[in-house]
Specification:
129 residues, alpha+beta, 4-stranded antiparallel sheet, 3-stranded antiparallel sheet, 3 helices, Dimeric_a/b-barrel, monooxygenase activity, oxidoreductase, AI-2_Isomerase_LsrG, ABM_dom
């Protein structure tokens, strides 16, 4: 199925494959699978790139997609560029559990982004749900 979604002031089109199981609806993304009744952790991060740093920030965020989607607890990991301002990016992440998100937060590639972020972004708004 294809959905039109609105998140943090951005509209984007995404898809989600749903599998029907007896008494459960399951969503599959990345390497994970979870029943809809289970508690997951969602992280939404919005970044505003510093002048002249948008391309570099975008490349790093896109590279995170490749690594993060291979993590065992990753259900979804998507990066979007604002249609109104190509200096703004949204990262929408979903994990099976808080422990899976903490694992992701301590990976070498995310630690590298954290070190570089002050040079690349003038704004970073990261929230978990």
């Amino acid at each position: 199925m294809i959905y039109l979604r609105h998140l943090a002031g951005l509209w984007f089109i995404t898809h989600q494959t749903l599998y029907k199981e007896p008494n459960a609806l399951t969503a599959r993304h990345c390497s994970g699978e979870i029943s809809m009744g289970e508690k997951t952790l969602t992280c939404v991060a919005v970044f505003a790139a510093r002048e002249g740093k948008a391309q570099q920030l975008k490349e790093i965020l896109d590279n995170l997609v490749i690594h993060t989607r291979k993590e065992p607890g990753c259900l979804s990991y998507e990066v979007f560029t604002s249609t109104e301002n190509n200096q703004r990016f949204l990262v929408n992440e979903q994990y099976k559990s808080k422990a899976d998100f903490e694992y992701h937060s301590n990976t070498p590639y995310l630690k590298a982004l954290q070190r570089e972020l002050p040079k690349l972004a003038e704004e970073a708004d990261i929230r978990t749900y």
